[in-house]
Amino acid sequence: MMVVRFVCLARLSERWIPWMRRALQLAALADGHTSPNPLVGAVVLDAAGTLAGEGFHARAGDPHAEVGALAQAGERAKGGTLVVTLEPCCHHGRTPPCTEAVIQAGIRRVVVALTDPDSRVAGGGLQRLRDAGLEVIPGVLEAAAAHQNRAFVHRVKTGRPWGLLKWAMSLDGRTALPNGASQWISGAAARAWVHRLRAHCDAVIVGGGTVRADDPLLTSRGLRTPEPLRVVLSRSLDLPAAARLWTTAEAPTLLAHGPAVEATDGESAPLLEAFGAAGVIATALPRCEPLALLEHLASRGCNRVLWECGPALAAAALQQDCVQELAVVIAPKLLGGLAARTPLGELGFTAMDQVIPLQGLTLQRLERDVVVQSLVPPLSAAGVRAHRDPGRPDRRDPPVHRCND
Ligand SMILES: NC(=O)c1ccc[n+]([C@@H]2O[C@H](COP(=O)([O-])OP(=O)(O)OC[C@H]3O[C@@H](n4cnc5c(N)ncnc54)[C@H](OP(=O)(O)O)[C@@H]3O)[C@@H](O)[C@H]2O)c1
Predict the structure, then answer these.
(1) What is the C-alpha to C-alpha distance for residues 210 and 232, in angstroms, rounded to an integer?
(2) Strand partners, 74
(3) CA quadruple 14, 105, 66, 87: dihedral positive or negative?
């Protein structure tokens, strides 16, 4: 009996897969623009199963995907089916609950990929639809929808944005010559790809070391409006007075530092004042650490951040589970030199069973360069728990940021 039921359910879901693929495509159109909200796409079919409306959530504050698709369908939504990548919301946020719009439009059946992890929804939207007499088919292409919305889901569950760490290196694993020269390791196509990567992120983070060494610009070169927030994390505030990051007309910059600088160092006050006058947002964190920075960025509505820092901060970010994904550009060049820089600072491993095993590897060619991308498991799952600094904050209940509506 159980097997028959499973086969029936699978057949029931299969019918909706092409439409859910289309809804996922629609959702992807706004990738990088919806934070703190999720990506959502929706399709409305009329009672005969013909396409009647399409919609996607374009940015926070704009109508939700379901509402756009229902508006396009108009009267044809009556007795029809809504196919949507994320559970419709059932709470009042910046917009009214989508469940009510779906019910009022006369929809008979709702097909959903992913349950909304937001505690204000978390299955409540599906229940509201069932209670109103609608047929609900959940879990269609759920894994694909979870992957598409991995940044949003991670931020809701942990209280921190999804971290993507990127570096460019030579085939012999160097990121700069022994004298620090590093521009350019990768070719023009890979650099343009990085601009596109930034356009899908809410913030781009470097440490003080990269500002001093490279004077980076860190914009998407106009591919994203507004540009991602450029973030500098510095303990010392020993930063150049003139740097391209301090010009904020093109893109905003946030300078994050620890509490001690303001409290003890009189020299930093005029510097912070000058940065403030230039429009740089100075922020004192409770601790000058990647984790504290991410908690702050989550409170500013960031779902996904790009770590474009050097080895010191990259290692610290990995050690605090602030990196969930990796993108490495490998250029067919040999730099050599024992003193040349490598992408990662000390991680404290002493045995091979402690190292971080990467998952879900993908490769792509960009002219002469190769980009390797992978997922990074939490260090607690990678057998390196013993190497955490016990004084450092570890996994805790996520701070609640009520900003996704
Ligand atoms: N090839 C690439 O993809 C790539 C990308 C970026 C950088 N780089 C290279 O990396 C080199 C710079 O390396 P880096 O390691 O100095 O750069 P970094 O990691 O960007 O900066 C390190 C700095 O981050 C700040 N920081 C604040 N809190 C920290 C914490 N908890 N842990 C660690 N750092 C913290 C400190 O700044 P303060 O000293 O100001 O306090 C620290 O000196 C340059 O040669 C640059 O060209 C290469």
Answers:
(1) 9
(2) none
(3) negative
Q: Which range, of 4-13, 226-235, 254-263, 380-389, averages the lowest pLDDT?
A: 380-389
Distance between Cα 398 and ligand 1 center (Å): 27
Q: 66 catalytic, yes or no?
A: yes
Q: 385 pLDDT exceeds 50? A: no
> Ligand 1: distance of its center to the CA of 330 in Å?
20
Q: Which of 169, 176, 244 is nearest to 204 (CA)?
A: 244
Q: Could you tell me which residues come within 8 angstroms of residue 141 by beta carbon, excluding any fewer than 6 positions away?
A: 17, 20, 21, 24, 113
What backbone torsions phi and psi does residue 200 show, to the nearest 5 degrees?
A: -95, 5
**Torsion 141-361-310-348 (CA) sign:** positive
- pLDDT tens readout for residues 36-66: 999 999 999 999 999 999 999 998 888 899 9
CB atoms within 10 A of CB 98: 29
Q: What is the pTM of this model?
A: 0.90
Give the integer Cα–Cα distance in Å for 31 and 202.
11
Give the residue among 31, 49, 51, 52 at the shortest CA–CA distance from 41.
31
Answer yes or no: is the C-beta of 235 below 6 A from any ligand 1 atom. Answer: yes
CA of 208 to the centre of ligand 1 (A): 6
Answer for the pair 243, 215: CB distance below 8 angstroms, yes or no: yes
Contacting residues for 270 by C-beta, under 8 A, at least 6 apart: none
User: Of 66, 87, 227, 295, which is the active-site residue?
Assistant: 66
Return the residue whose CA atom lies nearest to atom 11 of ligand 1: 310
Give the three-class secondary structure for 310: coil
pLDDT band at 6 (very low <50, low <70, confident <90, very high): low
Tokens, residue 70:
């229902």
CA angle in degrees (0–180, nearest 5) for 160-161-166: 130
